């Protein structure tokens, strides 16, 4: 899935300008990092892609669609095409690993056999097959984050977004999580990861978009 930002700006109702004149193009199948200090606009940029927020200026084209031309009715379809991983993984502790990963599929009303097949495939990809019946609370921080990734990919999205996915993990686990994103990218998924962990990003050898006060100040190889 391809992403294009053309001179995109976002001003919140508070008057805070979170993004300004942001332009970049992420090709189908590309992997890139989004970095910058806290408050630089990373989450806002991801929220625009997910249509959680709408831009105030400029054009965003995703998968050939101009997001401003999409009606509200289309938003759930758009979201289903995008897998999202959060820092605090947003798992539900009142249900098993299996049911956490199955959530996005149950929303779209798939049949149980298909759901079970997809959930097992997603857990297999993150190395957690066999933990379906556990409560996520019983698993380690790294494993919990991998459940979050399995849930993000269970719909086989063509675009995977992550917002500080390694924020709570030690360096070794962080590297494992980044390697997982790389594996999804290898099979053709477009991946955009927001992270302020510069040493980790530098080791990954991918494109890095650097935001500073809402503007892209660097777009290139690993910095
Ligand atoms: P980052 O993810 O890089 O930390 P954010 O996109 O969260 O940056 O924030 C960019 C700027 O926009 C910050 O100044 C932040 O305070 C502001 N901001 C973020 N969300 C909102 C909101 N919902 N309402 C008002 N201001 C916001
Ligand atoms: P239980 O141990 O009572 O089955 P679970 O939460 O693990 O509790 O599962 C509840 C339901 O979810 C199962 O009855 C089944 O329909 C489905 N399910 C859970 N795990 C799997 C699995 N590994 N394969 C297929 N379906 C599963």
From TrEMBL:
Transmembrane segments: none annotated. Residues 3-223 form the ABC transporter domain. Belongs to the ABC transporter superfamily. It comes from Marinomonas phaeophyticola. Homodimer. Forms a membrane-associated complex with FtsX. Keywords: ATP-binding, Cell cycle, Cell division, Cell membrane, Membrane, Nucleotide-binding. Its main location: membrane. It is found in: Cell inner membrane; Cell membrane. This is Cell division ATP-binding protein FtsE. Part of the ABC transporter FtsEX involved in cellular division. Important for assembly or stability of the septal ring. Gene3D superfamilies: P-loop containing nucleotide triphosphate hydrolases. It is a peripheral membrane protein. GO terms for biological process: cell division. One of its GO terms (molecular function) is ATP binding. SUPFAM superfamilies: P-loop containing nucleoside triphosphate hydrolases.
